[in-house]
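Q: For a teaching handout, I want to show students what a protein-ligand complex looks like in token form. Below are the inputs, and the small molecule is heme C. Please produce the holo structure.
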Amino acid sequence: MGNLIAETLSSSWMALAILAGLMVYFQVSISDPAAKKRAVFKTFIGIVSCFFLFMAIVNYKTNFYGESRLLPVSLVTITVTTFVMALYFTNLSAMLKVGGFMFFVAAFLSGYGNWLPQVEGGFPPVEEKKTWDSMSPQQLADEGEKIIFGGVGKNKEQGAIGKGQCPLCHAFHAGMLGERAPNLLGLPTRGKERLDDPKYSKGNPSKREYEVKEAFAGSGTAENSQEYIAESHACPSCYVVSGYGVKGTNDKQSPMPAIHKPPISLSLQELAAVDTWMYVREGIEPPPFEEIVKSYEKFIPEADRPKMAEDKPAGATSLMADGSEPVDQIFAKAQCVSCHTIPGIPGAMGTIGPKLEEGTTAAQRIKDPTYKGTAKSPAEYIMESIVDPSAYVVKPFPDNTMPKVFGQKLSAGALKKIVDYLSQVKAGAPPPKIS
Ligand code: HEC
Ligand code: HEC
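A: Here is the structure, written as tokens, with heme C included.
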């Protein structure tokens, strides 16, 4: 910036000096005293005008790209200059006046625009959403990370969770315990081992000993690693990793929800982004986007594919439920149903946590001598159990199994509906009505 000013100064001064020199030369050649006086005056005016012009140029050059918005000052200076010159150089007057007027109008308009209260940064940046098929693997992986964890770079953050809800059950990094579900580190290379497991019955789904033989009639089994991943998401009970099945089913049934079905409802494109992240984060080249989408088409029939704006990412929604839903949907959306049996709620048959009959149990928990929480009423106990599950750990269940995310991931309205419902569930009584 300093350079620019120096440059402008020197070049303008040079122009000014040449102009002044010419004027002095013309004056010396005039002999009539009256004419000479006029000429001296005109020279003075000329020099003043040049000075204004020079100011205008300096100001323009130094501020045009800057934030200070002083451009109008240049325009005003030029306007003044042209009018002053028009007054004294009458033969050029008409042209200068017209020019000056135009400058004045321009100055007024730009000044008006500039001095209006400014929204910070001018126009809001238009966030152009990329279409799925125009994305690079890294961009797809970023979308995948948003879907799984709720944001780019959040994969190592404790409790980070996105609309895919996978971290409710899965760990993704080495050393993190996966009691409820397999750790997904190494998945891209593990797929092949799974396919070779005799229990997988590759190519022969009817021989499977699992509750579901095929994702849908005729879909067959996975033929490669990526198809295994797709089948795992679309049909969790087609193959259940040993030791992770629903209790009491002898690993015949998986507790994992089908990811393309409500409430999670990821589209095929979103699923492809999730998978791309799993490859990219391990430094493995992912299969092309279209190929991943095809692997899902093999296991998800047309009618079951979630209908959404399929050409562009919808972005990670931050709340699991906003409270406008009926309570049974809230339980489903937050996956409470995968871990708890909740009387009166269809599909809530989980056994990873206790059966929720809080109308009976909550009061007993508060009276328990080992209770160290702060709840004074059943409603307070239920709320505490949801937003701070470790405040009191129900025996014989282990601590830290229930996710600690619900305080952030459910709206106040959704939490209230849950508390209202659960406090009415009593052991041995008919379940309350779903409101
Ligand atoms: C409610 C708990 C739960 C949620 C939520 C969940 N899973 Fe699972 N998942 C499991 C369990 C349990 C297993 C092991 C049983 C089986 O094979 O189905 C599993 C298995 C898998 C497997 C096969 C793993 C292997 O080692 O072969 C993949 C892949 C997988 N899940 C991916 C996901 C992704 C991606 C998400 C999120 C979009 C997700 N899961 C959400 C519980 C869950
Ligand atoms: C991944 C499994 C899992 C999910 C998902 C889950 N919970 Fe739990 N929950 C547990 C386990 C295990 C316990 C018992 C250990 C403890 O108290 O922390 C528990 C305890 C509770 C308790 C205390 C029960 C009692 O009798 O004192 C309540 C209430 C509860 N959960 C409500 C919910 C609600 C509501 C949701 C959904 C918003 C939910 N849980 C989601 C596993 C889960």
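A: Two things your students might notice: Residues 168-169, 180, 334-336, 338-340, 352-354, 356, 358, 361, 365, 382, 385-386, 389, 393-394, 397, 401-403, 406, 418 surround heme C (ligand 2) (CB under 6 Å). The mean pLDDT is 84.
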